[in-house]
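Let us work through a complete example step by step.
Step 1: write down the sequence.
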Amino acid sequence: MAELKLIHKGKVRDLYAAGEKYLLIVSSDRLSAFDFILPSPIPGKGAILNEISAFWFGKTGHIIKNHIVSTDIDEVRSRLAGQAPPGFDWEALRGRAMLVLRTKRVDFECIVRGYITGSGWKEYLKQGSVCGIKLPPGLKEAQKLPEPVFTPTSKADQGHDENVTFEQMAEALGPELAGKIKEKSLALYQFAAEYLEKRGILLADTKFEFGLLDGELILIDEALTPDSSRFWDAARYKTGTSPESYDKQYVRNWLEGSGWDKESAPPALPAEVVRGTLKKYEEALNKITKAG
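Step 2: predict the structure and record it as tokens.
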């Protein structure tokens, strides 16, 4: 019988092989920023990410199929009976594990931006573009774009993802597959942005990952969490500023002001920053999954 074994430890998630058909994804409490894993975990964060992803996978099935099989640890344990090594701690995974179908990963991160912010804003100030896509002159920081833009990056498990053009992505994947990925990414963004706006959240940007299962494109990894998205408080939003958010921008802001050079090992987060970050994630969970 196939053995459940750890095959990859990512920035935030641990990946276990479960035979040829399944993977077990475990969302940890680790937090990454500026391409570093921070030394201070955020207790409870993994379970929040898992719940939010499962919610969105359930909500977006009409747009594209996804890889989720179950988040019920008792069902997962039953399905994988006999595969876990002796002493495997199933209870430690409760609330933070997701059994998924194994796919051939598409090695691009698919970012959709609805507002001009972050690295896109910095590029716009210098070049009038975001990821090489020319934008209208005179935009202000955090302004809503005339329409969402698709800006893929190459996929790096460690280190920094590199911006690529859609044409480069199409050259690597073929125009048909690249076009479908772009279409589905924009559709997912539009659906989520409209849903969230009714709940007081603006979806500034987000990233998606895709895989191929028997030749069919499906949504994989996570979906529309505070780790992969910028969520802004609609009630306090205004252009020309950095809006209040329900994501890890809170930590990025602290790191920016800490004096860290972004090259050496990152500093530990103060207890109040850990608590404040967890509060942001909890607010996101409640607003996304429990409102309306």
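Step 3: interpret the result. The chain is about 30% helix and 25% strand.
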